[in-house]
Amino acid sequence: MSYCRKLGPNEKDLVIFATKEDHEVPSSITLPEPDPQPGLILPNGNINWNCPCLGGMATGPCGIEFRNAFSCFHYSKEEPKGTDCFELFKTMQTCMQQYPTLYNKDLGDDDELNEALDERKNTMAELKNTMDESKNTTDEFKITSDNKEKKT
């Protein structure tokens, strides 16, 4: 049979001693359903700055700048939405560039993008050169009406 004992200063701690028989019986306790998480926008329309979806952006070293820019965008009435927030986002980006170890993954020079653009430029240049060479080769020969090539 289990029993309880109060311990500690002023007997504020309640310690429950359970026997082996107590643990052999399945628990009859039912837990309440967890409260639904509100997400980024609260039911009243305000921004939930504690949402894990923000990844700590609202509380980092550029948290104020992020909150100002994001709030401006969220409450913007301009079309397209947020066009009145350009300066605030620029301020946020400037702040984030001062902390490259925290924000480098999404800001500044994107090496993968730059490499892809360089590769595309090189491919386009090679294609243009190939087309120019092909054009020069076809210009040297003209097909006559009897389908014979004649060098010009």
Automatic annotation (TrEMBL):
> By its UniProt entry, which Gene3D superfamilies does this protein fall under?
1.10.287.2900
Its BP terms in the Gene Ontology are: protein import into mitochondrial intermembrane space
User: Domain of life of the organism in this record?
Assistant: Eukaryota
Q: Which InterPro entries match?
A: CHCH (IPR010625), CHCHD4 (IPR039289)
Extract one GO cellular component term from the record. Answer: mitochondrial intermembrane space
Positions of the CHCH domain: 62-98
Q: What is its main location?
A: mitochondrion
Localization, per the record, is: Mitochondrion
Task: Extract the ranges annotated as region (Disordered).
Answer: 127-152
What keywords would UniProt list here? Answer: Disulfide bond, Mitochondrion, Oxidoreductase, Protein transport, Redox-active center, Translocation, Transport
Coiled-coil residues = none
- MF-aspect GO terms: protein-disulfide reductase activity
- Indicate what this protein is called per its UniProt record: CHCH domain-containing protein
